[in-house]
Hints:
With 240 residues, the chain is mainly beta.
Amino acid sequence: MFGRKxxxxxxxxxxxxxxxxxxxxxxxxxTDADELDSDLDAVEPPExxxxxxxxxxxxxxxxxDEVELGHDAVNRIDLGSxxxxxxxxxxxxxxxxxxxxxxQAITCVWEESGLEVxxxxxPVSGGLAHDLREELVEETExxxxxxxxxxxxxxxxxxxxxxxxxxxGEQLFHVSQVWFAEGPRWLLRGTLLGEAALAxxxxxxxxxxxxxxxxxxxxxxxxxxxxxxxxxxxxxxxxQ
Length: 240
């Protein structure tokens, strides 16, 4: 898609940017709960030595210094610290702090699924992904849900199933898959929601979001930041 050390398939893109957040993408009726893992384990299995040596970012997401942009006709959205490449028909929603007008996260919506992306500052030594996973496991268990670690397209991913009451008192479940990608002093967290969260990464419902996440480009900058702090994004020009 752009000049870089690694090759990724070209994508022609177009998107609508909306200043709002996504809702009700990730609820599953209790009648579908049998299709979920009935015995999810919140204990992360030891990582095999060969997996520890895998470069999970070999195909992206990328750091800005790893790519060459501007030499093609691909339509991208520049959010300052993050550059995204949506596909035609994808809705890109920005979660904005009304006081500062700083974008805290983006959520991409397509059909009955969505992907929330948050960019964090990370230590040079890495390890932030492990800490964030543990925090999410604790939050899940506190909410009465279950969490498990699985092999994902970007390394170990977290699957969360949290019970929620429905509008008519029925039992629903909030289901998500959480990805982590660590780069030079930054970390991207992607939370897959809706129907895609119930699917395998190679499933047609999930695969477009996997490719979208791979094609993200982070422009971290040299500003000192506390590890774990959210890196704010900028509103594109012309967006109110």
